[in-house]
Amino acid sequence: xxxxxxxxxxxxxxxxxxxQQQPRxxxxxxxxxxxxxxxxxxxxxxxxxxxxxxxKELLRTALEEVIVSIQSQERRAHLTLRWRGGALTETTxxxxxxxxxxxxxxxDTIALVRRLSTYYPDTxxxxxxxxxxxxxxxxxxxxxxxxGNLRRHWKIPRFRPSPEPAKxxxxxxxxAAAILGVAPSTIHRALNxxxxxxxxxxxxxxxxxxxxxxxRARFSxxxxxxxxxxxxxxxxxxxxxxxVWQRVKRGELEAxxxxxxxxxxxxxxxxxxxxxxxxxxx
Length: 282
Known about the structure:
The chain is α+β, with helices and mostly antiparallel strands.
């Protein structure tokens, strides 16, 4: 028997390769097992322990390609899903309608109005917001009506002044100055120098001071004999004006404001030991 021609061997090898490339037909048992896997996949997808990330991984494994066709006029999208293995699924979805952007005031501004409305009327609040460079939701400057509308929308109670000041109540500088019998500028200077404490809710808000009995006692019609002017105190202690103020702030020196007569102004109390410490007679 002669040798097999080379062309015949080549043809057999090509036939074998093509047979291997063809999909193998499933047997009955294999088909049953495959269908069971499909049920398992559905159970795994619906399981409460399957996270959104797990579902994405399952889709990436099962899907080969997703083709999306947008129908703008009908506001619909046609999807063609090509699964691994060649099966196709087609579906149509309605596109969500675009909603206009909600115009609203800055959250920080709303929180600030909520704090300020406890102490100030709408007109004062509007001035504070404008001094801070804040604007309404539409970029406009604030006025009393804008603040009032903002309060009502967010259910922020309006300012209601107390009929009578309570003990130690916070009050404006003008009102405190009238009660203490001094000019508002005197209170401002005392605040700037640190002689009395003040509170400011936010930058640009009016200063307020707490009118206590202790603060009232620091304003008098006349100064006792052991109280001296700032210049006299500097001379007797031999220190600078700044040093005197620092000691007043720390409570090492007592300060008093004279509200009447030719001697009105700041007076500082010196005791014997303080003068002797620096070598000056009392």
